[in-house]
Design goal:
- The protein is mainly α and about 240 residues long.
- It has one domain.
- The protein is about 65% helix and about 0% strand.
- It contains eight helices and no strands.
- Helix 3 packs antiparallel against helix 4 and helix 5 runs antiparallel to helix 6.
- The relative contact order is 0.08.
């Protein structure tokens, strides 16, 4: 049997003791990963940007765009912040559309939309509204953005034009009504196509009804000033 020198013997003893201590020692406790650095700060900044947007009157398109750069900077670096900011922008636009529809319903109840002159400030330019919505410097740049608001604005426009056409039919201005229906169909075709076949069918039904009543051999009582029945193509909404 080989004889160990003193130094080697000490090394063997130390190694044996170290191995024994390792077996008896409890496993190290699990350590939770610290939260991402700056998460609380991001949450506070996100809330501040949402509060800033909500302080702007719905329909103040310039105010929306003026505050958009701050939201974009924050959204570009954090997915959770971006989701919250996109939802806030959608709600802001939705509130504007819902408010306009509510005002329309009140006017229709009180005096009827057809009683309002075309130049009346109480009338809503629904097409201008949807154009303004689509021109916003929003975080969501997809074609389907602000779908609820666009559906609400479409419904308002459809109700308004149906009332207007009915008023012209009542006074036998069938060609004028036909021109309005055709222009309406051109203006709202892109939005209706996005929303679905039911909305497209509403445009087609109104246009065809008006076309059937507009006898080319029978002019309106006062044809001057009829709207253009073949308007130029509209930009994508």
């Amino acid at each position: 049997m080989p004889v160990l020198c003193a130094g080697a013997l000490v090394a063997v003893v130390v190694a044996a003791v170290w191995q024994s201590n390792r077996k008896d020692a409890p496993p190290p406790a699990a350590v939770e990963a610290p939260p991402p650095v700056g998460r609380d700060a991001l949450a506070r900044e996100t809330k501040a940007r949402i509060d800033e947007l909500n302080a702007i009157e719905p329909g103040d398109w310039a105010g929306f765009d003026r505050t958009a750069p701050g939201r974009k900077v924050l959204a570009s670096g954090d997915t959770a912040s971006r989701d919250a900011l996109v939802a806030a922008e959608e709600k802001w636009v939705d509130d504007r559309a819902v408010s306009l529809r509510g005002m329309q319903a009140q006017l229709q109840t009180l005096i009827g939309l057809q009683s309002l002159p075309r130049e009346s400030p109480a009338r809503v330019n629904w097409y201008a509204e949807v154009q303004s919505v689509m021109a916003l410097q929003s975080l969501d740049r997809t074609d389907g953005r602000f779908k609820f608001a666009r559906a609400t604005l479409f419904a308002g426009a459809q109700a308004a034009v149906e009332s207007e056409v009915a008023a012209y039919h009542a006074t036998k201005h069938f060609h004028r009504a036909h021109g309005i229906a055709r222009k309406h169909a051109v203006d709202w075709n892109a939005t209706a196509t996005l929303l679905g076949p039911n909305e497209v069918a509403k445009l087609d039904a109104l246009r065809k009804t008006c076309a059937a009543l507009a006898n080319p051999d029978v002019p309106d009582p006062d044809p001057d000033g009829d709207p253009d029945i073949a308007p130029p193509p509209r930009p994508k909404q």
